[in-house]
Amino acid sequence: MVIKIEGLDFAYGAGKQSVPVLKNINVTIQKGMITAIIGQTGSGKSTLVQQLNALLKPTKGTVQIGEHVVTNKTKEKELAPIRAEVGMVFQFPESQLFAPTVLEDVMYGPKNFGATDEEAKKAAKTALKRVGFDATLYEQSPFNLSGGQMRRVALAGVLAMNPQTMVFDEPAAGLDPQGQEELLNLLKSLRDEGKTVVLISHQMDQVLALADRVLVLKDGEIAADEPVDQLFSRPQSWFAEQHLDLPETIAFQKQLEEKGFVFDGLCKTVPDLAKAIKKQLDPTKIQTLGSTISENGEANHE
Amino acid sequence: MTDAITIKNLTYSYPEQGQLFDNFSLSIQEGEWLSIVGHNGSGKSTLAKLILGLLDFDEGEIRVFGQKLQLETLAAIRSQVGMVFQNPDNQFVGATVADDVAFGLENRQVPSEEMPAMIEAALKQVGMAAYADREPHTLSGGQKQRVALASILALQPKVIILDEATAMLDPEGKQAVLQTLKQLKERYQSKLTLIMITHDMEEAALADRVAVIDDGRLVENEAPRALFLKGQELAALGLALPFAMALQKDLAIDQPVYRTKQELATWLSKLKA
Ligand SMILES: Nc1ncnc2c1ncn2[C@@H]1O[C@H](COP(=O)(O)OP(=O)(O)OP(=O)(O)O)[C@@H](O)[C@H]1O
Ligand SMILES: Nc1ncnc2c1ncn2[C@@H]1O[C@H](COP(=O)(O)OP(=O)(O)OP(=O)(O)O)[C@@H](O)[C@H]1O
Ligand SMILES: [Mg+2]
Ligand SMILES: [Mg+2]
């Protein structure tokens, strides 16, 4: 299922109170890929993704979600099937939790789409396991959980519904480092299963590691829409204009380039970067300097 | 040196779950910058809520600037400690952004003629002055976090506790907040104590000391320069290394030495063929 946005404008509220947010958006979200959406705080990322499952309707223009076309005039009752096809994990997970227990919360989606109790429970447990949620907490209220635990429940809620397209709004926020690593693997495996994944993230390293394509929003407009390698090959000054950072590995690579190191292509991971650096070091210098380096990176000459 | 916060032999369990803290002790010196890290559900937010007296502990004691935390001292202690909550929505009380900042000031009986200037200064500090009249719930995630921070900064508390207060900020916003905190530390020196709960190891590394909590136990408690040399132990605790240390580990060419990104770049340029 492809999602196609054409000529979209969006404003919150109407008349004098209206706050225009998105302007002239034309993008296509390809199926079976991970599309990342990045941009400064308030640039319109969360507003944009809420058009993808018709939680918000365009003020102007159209959003085509598979066979459904959503415009300003689309009736609420026509939107229900879209919600089954496009699942969404919100920026603040609390806002989507509601059931008396964790298990019931995650079972709600499948049941709502016609699964039996038994099937829903099975789907819920599989999903909770997949996000590394502690099984001893299944009967707890989802509100009596830590921030990262709530995040996992919200993620599981969408996984259990098994929609074709899944949208994640800052899913790593609140997860511990191990949880972030697991999330990365989860999103990759969803793509491998043929799902369409949309990811909003402020963590450029995550975007670099995961995304096939990246949309950059600036003040509600698309500033870039291109494959991830092409995007991160842009100069640092361009990222500064968007008020964005380069991923750590690439920023460090650039820092070393200024000191005379040479790399062919982008180093996407820390091990890759380490390998590329090591090739350029002088073994004899490592021998003599290696173990006698003081804390500030200066050699100790005794 | 006096303690800003002393926690001694603390015991606490939520009614719904088993024992979380059992005989937990930790002190934080006046003027110190402490990071608290640990896996999800390890007890960080709970500890912060206990310090603020939002939860009642079962045994042990908590002192804030020597004053024992109990019903009679609750108000006095809360006026010295400001906390930015993990979810800003749980913190908002005002109908507008400006009201929200004003609310805390009113609670501290700031004269009303002084308030507008203080509100504006606090919102400016986080780049949100233009949003003073907006309803907090209509803000974007990062904007909410900025306002939540402004509401606490306006109060100029002696102890600031930030519970993952930068998790939703964009890279620039995060840098700006950390810069603001550094400046405040410089200005107030020992008069400002900072406790930062975070999953971001770069951020944790800015502190004087990092406390690692694992299921309610204090398992590490030392300066970042020492802590981040313990790659294996940290991985076992579900933690990561700051970028420069992770890279250095993969380079595996010398004895472990703590280096920042800058230091690592300088050192590598010396080893270049
Ligand atoms: N309900 C609303 N009413 C009016 N304005 C709103 C509403 N919701 C969001 N906005 C505004 O729309 C703009 C875009 O918000 P959005 O939440 O899409 O940003 P974002 O890119 O997701 O930012 P962040 O990274 O901080 O989450 C912001 O300036 C925000 O203040
Ligand atoms: N209101 C509550 N009622 C019952 N149990 C709770 C409540 N809040 C938290 N807990 C439990 O207490 C433990 C510690 O939670 P806490 O929120 O302190 O963790 P945390 O270290 O802040 O985690 P995170 O990094 O995910 O925010 C968790 O197992 C959690 O499920
Ligand atoms: Mg957002
Ligand atoms: Mg917490």
Mean pLDDT of chain A: 92
Q: What radius of gyration of chain A results from the CA coordinates?
A: 22 Å
CATH topology of the domain at 1-80 and 198-240 in chain B: Rossmann fold
User: Approximately how much helix is present in the residues of chain B?
Assistant: 25-40%
* CATH H-level homologous superfamily name of the largest domain in chain A: P-loop containing nucleotide triphosphate hydrolases
CATH superfamily of the domain at 1-80 and 198-240 in chain B: P-loop containing nucleotide triphosphate hydrolases
Task: Round the Cα radius of gyration of chain B to an integer and report it.
Answer: 20 Å
SSE order of chain B: EEEHEEHEHHHEHEHEEHHHH
- What letter string, H or E per element, gives the SSE order of chain A? EEEHEEHEHHHEHEHEEHHHHH
Residue ranges of chain A: pLDDT <50 for 5 or more in a row? Answer: 292-302
The number of domains of chain A is: 2
> Largest sheet of chain B, if any?
6 strands, mixed
Unreliable spans of chain B are none
Q: What is the general shape of chain A?
A: globular
Q: What is the correct CATH architecture of the domain at 1-80 and 198-240 in chain B?
A: 3-Layer(aba) Sandwich
Ordered list of secondary-structure elements with their pairings:
The complex is a heterodimer of chains A (302) and B (273).
Chain A: E1 3-12, E2 19-29, E3 34-39, H1 45-52, E4 60-65, E5 68-70, H2 80-85, E6 86-89, H3 102-112, H4 117-130, H5 147-161, E7 165-169, H6 177-192, E8 196-200, H7 204-210, E9 213-218, E10 221-227, H8 228-232, H9 236-241, H10 248-258, H11 270-278, H12 283-289
Helix pairs in contact in A: 3-4, 3-5, 4-5
Chain B: E1 3-13, E2 19-29, E3 33-37, H1 44-51, E4 59-64, E5 67-68, H2 74-78, E6 81-84, H3 97-107, H4 115-125, H5 141-153, E7 159-163, H6 171-188, E8 193-197, H7 201-204, E9 209-214, E10 217-222, H8 224-227, H9 231-236, H10 243-251, H11 261-271
Parallel strand pairs in B: 3-8, 3-9, 6-7, 7-8
Antiparallel strand pairs in B: 1-2, 1-4, 4-5, 9-10
Helix pairs in contact in B: 3-4, 3-5, 4-5
